[in-house]
Fold this protein.
Amino acid sequence: MADQQIIMAGFGGQGILSAGRILAYAGMLENKNVSWLPSYGPEMRGGTANCNVIISDEVIGSPILNTATTLIVMNGPSLDKFENAVESGGIIIKDSSLVQRTPERKDVEVYGVPATETAFNMGNPAFANIILLGKLIALTNIVSKENFEVALKKTLPSKKHSLIPVEMKALEFGMQY
Amino acid sequence: MGEKLLMKGNEVIAEAALRAGCRHYFGYPITPQTEIAHYLAKKMPELGGTFIQAESEVAAINMVYGAASAGARVLTSSSSPGISLKQEGLSYIAGAELPAVVVNIVRCGPGLGGILPAQCDYFQAVKGGGHGDYKMVVLAPSSVQELYELTVEAFNIADRYRIVSMIMGDGILGQMMESVEFKDVENIDKADKSWATTGTQMKREHNTTTSIYIQPEVLEKHNQKLQAKYRLIEEKETRVESYNCEDADIIVTAFGTVARIVKNVIKMAQKEGIKVGLIRPITLWPFPTAEYEKYADVPKAFLSVELNAGQMVEDVKMAVNGKKPVYFHGRMGGMIPTQKEILDKIKEILNK
């Protein structure tokens, strides 16, 4: 796809912002233009967190997304808030472990992945975000698995590099699901 | 040329300052620019520089005055309420003709306001927020790459003219990440700083830096010298990007983040057969007046889109000088105009 506009949203602490950052970094490694914009308003403290990621062949104009090609949600309130921002024909990926409600939209593709539950069973619930990115990558080919792994190395502090093989397993799970 | 990195705007400002040879930072934390101080708190000591979190913004700007007097490349950064506190110091630094770089990652006001993006400090920056007839060069980047290039340039301009350069951004630019390449920096320490108060070592007369001139004849001469300098800067340092203006139905003026939104609007409008041009002032002062003279006969009207109640539009009106109608569209309080909203405004103007 030439232009991917992704809104990722959930609770603070679920790794929403860092998942967006890894994705943007991988996009940059694909020689695409990328932007990553976090919500930095007062809602960040203890509430919802979201970020806008654009990966494009063209120069990026506004980094602010009023609409998105893909929405990834890790809690119910985020689905309520952003469901209508998805373009017709777009994609909603939800963490079905935490988001019970089915989106009402009939003109978008909806995928539920039990990301938090699976990540918990894999030994680290913090990788739920990576599982959801795996689903996104499988659906859109937005970045390659190889570049995703390099992006993990570039964005994680070196003391966390030992976790990368497990994160790649989490990504695999999401891609296969 | 280095490798491409993915970095936050605020961190890029800090890295640019270091690469431009700045080794002194004085500041006081405030959202949404604290990453600048955070980055420099770590890196400055590693490079043998000075990082001081001052007791207040007033203290910080006077520390800047001191370092600049000694001829050092020096940076301070803040956000709107903090920049207000720095106005007295900025006026003194301007009066004493010292080079310094100030970053304002603007938030919405008035008062404590909110932390979201705004451009409501335009008047304060370009018309002189402090007392007296003085100017600062005000640079308005609109991408993370440009934050790097213009921060480096801010130091060069400051040294070249012994003036304060201000980088004016907003929380979107400061908080967003984009790819950036750190191109090699030229002109570090090339400026003549024989005026600096570096100690005479008993080999020369004392240098002094001051903004007090008690004799009216002397003070008027000092002011005339400053004004001559400002006219030279207007001639040499005005920067602007014009986009699609040659056959535009309407020319929009926007800077920083808003200019990026307008670029999307241009694409949307093209699909509907409306030709929208953009004049993006890169220097807010000096304002690119000549660009409006160049294109005044082209469009039906001009439109200024800003994150305030209508500030830059006054400079647009002066530049257009009555040749065409000038309209305004603005949002306040941290609200950002959508692309559709701007396009609707354009259609409304063109259908008049």
